[in-house]
TrEMBL record:
Organism in which the protein naturally occurs: Pseudahrensia aquimaris
EC number per UniProt: 5.99.1.4
CDD domains in alphabetical order: DsbA_HCCA_Iso (cd03022)
Keyword list, A-Z: Isomerase
Origin superkingdom: Bacteria
Stated name of the protein: 2-hydroxychromene-2-carboxylate isomerase
Occurrences of domain DSBA-like thioredoxin (ranges): 4-198
Catalytic activities: 2-hydroxychromene-2-carboxylate = (3E)-4-(2-hydroxyphenyl)-2-oxobut-3-enoate
Family: Belongs to the GST superfamily. NadH family.
Keyword Isomerase: yes
């Protein structure tokens, strides 16, 4: 069975926008989707990328004011028309709820999508236990038990291990999909990713010429 390593943050706009499409692709091709939620800022900063708090206002305005809405319309995904109120809040507990359900399967797929959707469609604060409890209850879980596991040392350590794993593979953004060791960055690569499932990518050996 083919597998896709799915690297993303629980508050990622583009992970949310591509979430349903990704899962449709995996179902259609019988692919195992392996979830690797991460804390995004430490991962991207390890590759020399700027966190959003350090980027220019023009970049932030374009990202939140144009690109997200355009892609949401294209994918027919509802989103809030503003930067989520609590976008900078700690989402380690929300990530823990995903990890607590395992790294693949219907339950973790549903939880990942629900967490992303809560933030980007309903402006949920992913650090708020009441909001996370509601997500868990809606999906039919024992919310208090799941939250207890999600905040446990073992699950939070797994989240940190995912971050190390992503850094070691030079991940610089969310979402990144890894197929056969080859990364596809961004939900706008989903169609190319699907093509690669049936037509494996054969690198040409291209290298970046040195600059004198």
């Amino acid at each position: 069975m083919q597998r896709i390593e799915y690297v993303y943050s629980a508050h990622s706009a583009f992970a949310y926008i591509g979430s349903k499409r990704l899962m449709e692709i995996c179902a259609r091709h019988g692919v195992q989707l392996v979830h690797r939620p991460v804390l995004l800022s430490p991962v991207v900063e390890a590759q020399g990328s700027l966190p959003f708090r350090a980027r220019t206002q023009a970049h932030v305005d374009y990202f939140f004011g144009r690109e997200i809405e355009r892609w949401a319309q294209y994918r027919h995904v509802p989103v809030v028309n503003f930067r989520p109120t609590h976008h900078d809040a700690d989402y380690s507990l929300a990530s823990g709820m995903i990890i607590a359900l395992g790294d693949s399967g219907e339950q973790v797929d549903a939880m990942a999508h629900a967490v992303l959707q809560a933030h980007w469609q309903y402006d949920a604060d992913l650090s708020d236990r009441a909001a996370l409890r509601l997500i868990a209850l809606t999906l039919g879980h024992d919310a208090d038990a799941l939250l207890a596991v999600a905040e446990s040392e073992a699950i939070q350590q797994k989240l940190q291990e995912n971050c190390v794993w992503a850094k070691e593979r030079n991940i610089f953004g969310s979402p990144t999909y890894i197929l056969d060791g080859d990364p596809y960055y961004g939900q706008d690569r989903l169609e190319i990713l699907e093509h690669a499932l049936a037509n494996p990518f054969a690198p040409s050996g291209w290298t970046n010429p040195s600059v004198n």
